[in-house]
Amino acid sequence: MGIITVKNLDFSYDNETMAVHGVSFSIEKGSYTTIVGHNGSGKSTIAKLLLGLLEKKSGEIFIDDLPLTQENLQKIRSKIGIVFQNPDNQFIGSTVRDDIAFGLENHQVPQQEMDPIIDEFAKKVKMTEFLNSEPIKLSGGQKQRVAIAGVLAMKPEILIFDEATSMLDPQGKDEIKKVIHDLHEDSTITIISITHDIEEVAKSDDVIVMDKGKVVLTGKPEEILLKEKQLISMKLDIPFSLKLQKALKTNGIKIKETITMEGLVDELCQYASKK
Ligand code: ADP
Fold first, then answer.
1. Is the CB of 45 under 6 A from ligand 1?
2. What's the CA gap between 63 and 158, in Å, rounded?
């Protein structure tokens, strides 16, 4: 059993249409899983169900072997952190330090123990020099890094990013993607990234594709990304790197297939150096 196991999950907001229907999946401990789908496919609803913010209509949810019940709710919530889309809605403190402290205060961490924890996680997201800054002085990417530090300070076992980069400019997006990938490499935390952006799939361990409230595909990125027709039919498209490879192939340029942009750049450099 994975750290998260979901079986036959159903949920409806209005008792008529199913926002989530017959959803089953399992997420391995320590993995980086991307849940991808077009807007309205049910991804955020799944995140809210996992956190017990919405109550399932039927089905089962197990987090770290614990069934998600009213009785286990607090225990389960302490295992999961979530970073949302809008950095402005997540900033609670008047400075970065206060903001990271907020969750610790809620967890009744003694004042004298807080500072080293805040320093540790501010360093992890490279925000140490901004600890006394006000939110208004920060970019969107920096605000999201603070939100990540605040959640990490709670030491969750599972960290969910719900469209956490979608409101950021390209530089902010890159900053946050790097923080997430570094976290995955340096820790045993389980990461779930929820996104409508197919570009974010290539670097994950596992992928869950949702459409119209259902899980339609699960697998490794290299399997999923080859299903071009199916992805396009779900308004997901294929990543730019694969489109470029197709164009190169059409023009007689043969390189080894790769799903990441970095892989493609490597292959193109090798191709160019042989010319
Ligand atoms: P996604 O995260 O993939 O964009 P959501 O989980 O937000 O999708 O939405 C799934 C479905 O549930 C959509 O049809 C959406 O319109 C509906 N929905 C989402 N939130 C609410 C809500 N608070 N009340 C009613 N319907 C909702």
1. yes
2. 9
